[in-house]
Amino acid sequence: MASARLFALMLAVTMVAAGGLPARAACPQALAVYDEAGSGAEIAFAGPLSEADGMQHRFSLSFAGSGVMMDGVVMMAGEPDRPWGVILHECPEGDATGAEIAACTVWEGVIYTIGSTGEARWLPVLDADHKAGDSLLLPDFSAAVMRSQAWQAGQVTRLPGDVFRLKACQE
After folding, report:
1. Which member of 2, 32, 102, 142 has the lowest number of beta carbons within 10 Å of its beta carbon?
2. DSSP label at 69?
3. Are the C-beta atoms of 135 and 164 separated by less than 8 Å?
């Protein structure tokens, strides 16, 4: 009985000292929420998708204090196949032409996860239960936002960087 209490106490101390990381460490990629430290921009994955969806992941991107929301998708593309992310802002509803999609595309590229020891890997896509990475890297995202209509119109005023850190897990 005393050893069970000691174990429970040690577990509680470990969780407090780690800032709750044991709970976050088990977060599946499909439920992860990330934020960018400098701007407060946030990426929230939409949860597991059905095979009929055709995408590997869907997520929303919000910009703190601005009310601007962007939509993101991850699909397999390229040679070799890799997780290709696309972030869109104010795209037309329903069927859209290629030119309309190009006009509302803010960023596209390979999405990487960065582990706690600094290793970079492609965003996990084939397994919805795969553990979320400690951080996301969207190469050249900051530069893409600067070229976006949302930045040009002054809707987004705090420029995010390219790295988003794991913030929470949607339960």
Report:
1. 2
2. E
3. yes
pTM reported for the whole predicted model: 0.81
**DSSP for 144-165, written as a single string:** HHHHSHHHHTTS--S---SEEE
Q: Structural domain boundaries of the chain?
A: 28-169
User: CB-based contacts of 86: which residues, under 8 Å, 6+ apart?
Assistant: 72, 73, 74, 75, 105, 107, 108
With CA atoms as reference, report the closest residue to 106 among 154, 155, 143. Answer: 143
Provide the phi-psi class of 78: left if phi over 0, else alpha when psi is between -120 and 50, else beta.
Answer: left
Specify the higher pLDDT residue, 128 or 83: 83
Residue 70 CA to residue 60 CA, distance in Å, equals 6
pLDDT for residue 72 is more than 90: yes
CA distance linking residue 142 with residue 57, whole number of Å:
21
Q: Quick one: pLDDT at residue 128?
A: 65
Other beta carbons within 10 Å of 8: 10
